[in-house]
Structures are given as C-alpha cells and as structure tokens.
Amino acid sequence: QVQLVESGGGSVQAGGSLRLSCVASRYSTSAGMGWFRQAPGKQREGVAAIDRDGSTSYSDSVKGRFTISKDNAKNTLYLQMNSLKPEDTAMYYCATTQKCPGATYIAVFRGAVFDCWGQGTQVTVSS
User: What is the distance between the alpha carbons of residues 125 and 14, in angstroms, rounded to a whole number?
Assistant: First the structure.
C-alpha cells in the first residue's frame, strides 16, 4: 500500500518560511494529495490539497501564504509556507485520496476523502 514520509518541519520565528516535503511510494499519480495539520487539543484540519490535474485549494487561514505543489516524476508533494504565524504551529501531515486498506482515520477536505497518512512533521512558529 502507499507510504508517505514527510520532512522539512522545524522551528522558525514569525514571518519566516519553511518548505515541507512528502515522498510517496507505491503512489498513483491519479490520486489527490493534501496537507493537514493538528495542533495540541485541536482537531486535524485541512490546509491545502491538489488534485490529479494540478488544481489546488486552500483553507482560508493559509490562503495567500502557503503554496502546495507536486512533482510526479519524484513522487513528491510540497508545501511552501511563507509569512508563518504562531497559530501555524502544529504537526503537519501529508495525505492522499488513494485508498489504504484498514485505514483508521478519515478526513474530508474540499470534497475529497483522505484516508492514507504519513507520520507527520512538527512545525513550531515562535513570536
């Protein structure tokens, strides 16, 4: 089944930038992909998604600051995060709409159902 491995998280000051990467193995380029985040004590929320045709969508809280992109040749998904704010602090997860047998967590963002997840990468933004 598909495997997703995120990297690129870290600690930055407000106003800084980070780029997250997610390498997918056994991934179908016909599936959609997305980034979610979860802060302590809060529900996981969708941040950005990209469909198989390259169309993108964003949550209102990151629109204009974050950019999602993918490189199908490298099976890699990216999230460029600029003008970071302390409220962006969270664990960031890569996800795909490709089905994962035995999936235990399902989330919906902009009408797409995601049930395959990476292990997450921590982003901490200090003021």
Answer: 6
Give 45: exposed, middle or buried? Use CB within 10 Å, 0-12, 13-18, 19+: middle
**Tokens 């795909």 found at:** 96
Q: Residue 44 corresponds to which amino acid?
A: R
Return per-residue pLDDT of the chain as tens, 127 residues.
889 999 999 999 999 999 999 999 888 878 899 999 999 999 999 999 999 999 999 999 999 999 999 999 999 999 999 999 999 999 999 999 998 887 888 999 999 999 999 999 999 999 9
Distance between CA 40 and CA 83 in Å, rounded?
A: 21
CA distance 114 to 18: 24
